Amino acid sequence: MRHLLYHALMAAGLLLAQCGYLNTPSFERIDDNRLRVIGVVTQPRAEAAPGDTVKVRAYFAGNPVTNVSSFKVSYDVRRNFSTDTFVNVRAVDPVSARGWLPDSMDFSFVIPDSVFLQGDPVTYVSREDAAWVYDLVRRYRTEGVSVLGELSPGDMEKLAAVIAGLVKPSYVFFTAESEDGSRLKVKSDILVRYNALFAGMPPFDAMFPVNNNPQIRWLGVYTVKGYLYGGFEPDDPSHEGAWTLSYLFNELSPDSVVDTIDIDTGYTYFIAADSGIIGVLDSLGNLVQDTSREWGVSSMGTPGQEEFYYNWFWQNLGDQADDPDSLLVIGSDGTSIAGFYPPLKTSMDRFRVWVTVHDELAGAVRPRGFAVRQAEGWLRYSPAYRARNPASN
Amino acid sequence: MLRRIPPLLLLLSLAVRSSPQEPSIIDDTSAIELEIPGDSATDSLPPIDVMPQLTVFVKADFPDSLVQKGIEGLVVMDLVVTDSGRVDSVKVVQGLHPVLDSAAVHAARKFTYTPAKSGGQPIPVLVQFPYRFSVDEVVKKIKEYVNFSGTVIEMGTRAPVADANVVVTPVVAEAGVNDSASNVAASREFERIGSLAGQSYEEGSLIALTDSLGRFAFTSLPAGPVTVRVIAAGCKDFTEDEEILRDKVTEVKYRIERASYSEYEIVAYGRLEKKEVAHRELSSQSVRRIPGLSGDPVLAVQALPGVARPSFGGGEIIVRGAGVNDNRYFLDGVEIPTVYHMNLGLLKSVYNSYALRSLNFYPGGFGVRYGDVVGSVIELNGRPSKKDRWHGYADLSFSDFSVALEVPVNKYVSVLGAARRSHIGDLLKWLAEDVVQMNLGIAAAPFYEDFLLRVDVNPVKGHDFFASALAVKESLCVIFEDIRGGSSDVDENTDEMSLGKRFSLAMAGYDAEFTDRLSNTFRYGLMHGSAKMSVFGFYKLEIEGFFHTIRDQIDYVVRDGLTLSAGIDLSIKPSNGTVALALDSIVKHKVENLYGPLGAYLTGEWKPVEGLTITPGLRYDYYPDLDAYHGTWLPEFWDYDINNSTRFSGDPSLRINGKYRINDRHAVKGAIGSYNSAPRTSYDMGFGRDLAHSEAVDSVMGNPDLATTKASHYVLGYEWRIADLVSLDAQGYYNQQWDVTRMPDNSDAVADFDVKRFVDNGKARMFGLELLLTLDQGGRFYGWLAYTLARAERYDNAREKYTLYDRDILNNAQLILGMKLRGNMELGLRLRYTDGYPTYPLEEVEYYDATYLYYKARFGTELTDRFPPFVGVDLRFEKRFVFKRWMLTMYLEGLKLAHILQFVDGKDGEPLYKPTEMDLWYYDYSGKEGMPDIPLAQVGLQCDF
User: So what's the ipTM on this one?
Assistant: First the structure.
């Protein structure tokens, strides 16, 4: 990594000088002719315990996916510079449930009970300790929580320590095939550890916290009076009364959702999603506060709240101009509010957006929670805007 | 009338000396009896017994104006000498010029004689006296004294003009006077004084030459108006009218203008007189006009054969396919960690080129003076302050501002200082934030500065002392507004990636010539260096050290054609620091190292026959911090594959250079040598070789059991001076390296693979042909054409075969051309064509990582693809305004102008030229585009005084 840093810095500096020049396909812009995977979400939570049934939902975009196959799970990896090798690979049980949804499909598989005893030796925990926990868990499942109550304080401490060391990153693979025949192998990570086994069971749930997936309960477009060149914060007093929010999706208040965004001159537009902190009004007008951001402890023992990182994807539906930069563009800096730049070519009036969010806790080795939300909308241009940006622009 | 005095005797001077300074005495006086018509009584006059003798002579005044006009001749007078010997009356009987007639009469009246006698009695007599006015006599008796002197200096630079011809010509005669006669007379006078020391006569003018300080003097110039003309090589003619006074020295100072203020003078590469086979020397002045090199000699190295084009945005020097840490850099004999600043591609050397005398570049096959190096050597040579007066300069460009001042304290001591500070980071930030008002969420701030001070003391001829100090600081930091990473326990700045380094070097030198045969060169350097690197809160390195260097070489001329030299080259480099890593937990590691090769060498220069020079040398280097040595006590020219387990051991080197000068135009040369160096990482973070070594042998980050890297160089060359200004140098080379430090791979033992970050079983080989056609300055054009055909390979242990080095460039051609224009303008052109660097071919897209949102691709394991060729066009234009005491230079530099063609579509709709510095793959690897390097422009102002 170090020998790349110098060149990375140089490249970053030169890219600054050249930004906007390159006309390469954009990762965030969804093109009709490319098979895209927006995200893969493991459910019910971002991690799983041995023996858990995990549902994996994959969200697709672009060239329609017609077939998904070759489901596999790997429970180990050999790391080498740029040549990681996944080992201990197993095909997912073909009897697992599968289903197609309009924008996605999902399938399920079961984490083997004995995953910590199989394959490569456990790195930080002895095989004997792993077997001891395995036996405890097996009895816990059959005999109930009383098994844990029989443990001495010393055994409880040992259990906490061993479980903390029983962490196995696992990798789910499948292959998607799209209409145009292109195929794409997809990999998604899921962390296997015992914590999920104790979810909702005080006091063990405090000892073994789990990471849930973030939630995206609403998605909308802010219309802000004036031209803003910097960022936008709805809570900023200087913007009070200068904006309106049009929901494209609102889980708590479906009636507030609109399907058309009015575009006019003299306004700046931002697209935003549930930040996990800022509340939203439900259908009864009550302010619903955040429930999805969780607290955790970093590897250095520092408690902290996880951060959310956002990725915004968009697709111009209908007109696909030679210069895609003349159509809808979303400019994101990884936060829950992104610049929403209406098309310069007003013949384009329909769009689709996706927002994905994942959580991270600095310095902590923990599962990465993931969420995906999709919405569609129309753009309605004012005469003034059309005059400035004709359809054939 | 003649008979008015009856006893008159007419005496006639028969012999007359013409000098007016001495009496025109009658030294052979005889009485002539004149026959007086009509008066026979005279026959009865008694005879004159005693003739009158002139005892007091008075010189007549001979005005300069008449001397200069060349009027000379006789004024014949009749003098009545009384019986007391006094001149009673004077009459001009033959005139010359009214003024001279009168002057002669006045002088004659003051003559005194002994009376003539007749019969024992004094008698009055009439004496005829011819008074001669002689220009020759006047000139001959002129006392030699300087009455016209001065100094000739260059306008603007105020540099003394040596060997200039100062021509003094008398102004032509005034109207109304016989011009030709007058001019002839003046010419004769000039001709006569032309024989005086320090001046010569030529075609009516006097000529004197200026000395090394531009001074001249004329002796005994006749008073009057003259025209002075100064003629100097490379300068415009200068003419001035002056009035020469008889009794006063006329002092002048002439400022003459050079025909061109181009300082491109020397590009000495492979000259016949050079001792080293592949030695190339660049004078500081020689490269200031080369476009694309920022006037920097260090960067000019990159325009020479055998030197690869640096990587995108970098400035590393890759010579003959060797690694970036295989080069060694010196300043006046003391090692420095780096020679250039990090600056986003607009590179500057760390030593201000204003204070640089020359740069010596040894691409390979060099002698035993240099150890701990298996690639090339670059040595910067600072210069002392000029001693004639204060000098200085200031330069302001887009990237930085620099100033320098040199002060002669007295005839023994002089001081030179320079400072430079970059502002390109501030400029970019200002442009982005205040002008464009663009929030990039990222702030890149390259910064560098350097200071130098040099004091020279020359108390006695042959004993020169100097002390110098160089301080360098630079950093490159990228701050991300919305990105944090790692832990603040590693680095409190979790939002930035940064590189920073600084070093301060104090140096002392003493060069002594004890006798004509015995001389000594001594250097001592003390350097404090520190480096810091951080990657968010994930990684942080901080290291510092105090380095001592002692060098001494003694040279003894045994006899003509045989010189022996012995030297020591000692370094002690203790360093310590910390490395912090955020992995599953915070890992902090203390780095300590005591590195320092101790070397000694013997060499000599032997000329056994006319034209043949052989330079053999033997060197021994000991690396005290190494535990393992792979080698023998014999110099290795290939891998002898012998493991020397003796701990107190080292590596010997044997090197031989030879050159045979066939005649004045042709020479052949060759070199063979063995080399070694301490183990180092193959990559360079810009911190220099010492850190690369510390990392390689560190107990945690590296492998303390690494052995030295060995190499051998073989060079054959031919030099041909095609014409006076045109020369060709051709060299072929074959270099090989073994015991090279490398990262382990699957071919190594599992234990090495898992535990050790480095092993020492790498191998490399490089071979190539270099051509350099040089057109020296002399006419309107100058420059060079460099071409290299080369191949560099590294041994792939896993595949058990040689594969391409990732810095390999097969074809590398560069044309440097300068053209002097009128009006102190100059145009420089640099054309480059190089093959692209090798790259790995894409084999397949393995998968899309839906957790981390990227496509994982697998590339080939061999460098079988290449980036597209690079075509570079750089232009530099400058205009110099020369004032009386200073000069102002305005320069405009356009870099990579061919890259403009990427914005111009051809017939097929594709750009006419697509510069590609690195592959930018589409996010899904379905295609790629090249990183579009862009044209750059640099504007600057420079002031010299």
Answer: 0.91
